[in-house]
Amino acid sequence: MRTAGILAAAGADAAWPGGGWALWAAGAWAVFLAAHLVLNGRWWFWLLPSLLPPPVFAAVPVLLLVAAGATGDLTAAVVAGAALLLGARQSGLVPGALVRGARRPPPDGVVRVVSWNTQHWCQSTDPEPFYAFLRGLDADVYLLQEYHHDEFDGTYRLIDDERRLRETFPGHRAVIARGLITLSRLPVAATVETAARRTLRVDLEMPGDGRILATFNVHIPVQLRLISPLRADFYRAVRTRAADRAREYRGLLGDVAGCPHPALIAGDFNTTAAIGDARRIARLGADAVAVAGKLCPTTWQARPGLRWWRLDWVLTTQGARVHHYRFRDPLGLSDHSVQEVSVSLTEPDHPADTDPRIRHHDEGTHHALPLPGKDRPAGQ
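Above: the chain sequence. Below: its structure as tokens.
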């Protein structure tokens, strides 16, 4: 907050009457950035400004630096440079992806995991190419979100496509709950109840020695409803969902902290690097995105050609390691890219006492733990 205050003061002092346009623009951006750093994640309303595409936090100050250079305005250049440095973490850029060392061959026991928000489970697409695409991913483990249909009124309708799932994936076991699906070729050791109500934890036995990898299939509620911002309901929904998101993250942080096994946490977090909840994500585990080798990784598009946001994450806790990570084009079947990773365990797992929340796997939609439709925000 002290840094933000200094930046705001610098921006306000810089844009004095009579200053050039570059100086005024740099000062205005510095004031906005200071407000963002102070209010982001602390005031529910700031969920809306934080929806800016994260690369904007790098692109704007770079353009201002160019403008300052073109006009010879040294003060504007200083303000823009400070804004670039202080806003770098909000940009979602991953410089480390460009300086990776030589790849080492993965060890034995690596499994391929796919995480994907299916955009309401082929509600608006033909099921044939949808299932063909899923099958073609050929993953050992699938963590799939939005196994439901949207009612477009702030609620969803649970579906039952289990028969087709079993026909399409005869070698996988299915755990279905809360509009989430975990499909696994690996033996399912247990499903575990979670405090996070939009998370599905399934513990899997890894190949070879049968050590346990805990998978957390995550879907954090979206920030807003797609209704007119001129309506009071729009802002009531943002405030309500900010509280929902905070509860989900608190629950998930507790669930991961209490997990005795190495964990893979993946899914649609509806959170970018520019949203305050990114601080909560950083406490969950190590972000695997540098392995993808992309300076500006993105996974979601507002419309075709506008893939400027990364809402989907893959995290690991101690004892689990991601060796390969890439984003795959969903071929028009969803507005989210597919996250594909290979993961292994790096050290022996230490068995813990039996957790009273663990219940052994029992397949079937009727054994799921769905949220009532009215409890689930639209577009989750």
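The first strand starts at residue 111 and ends at 117.
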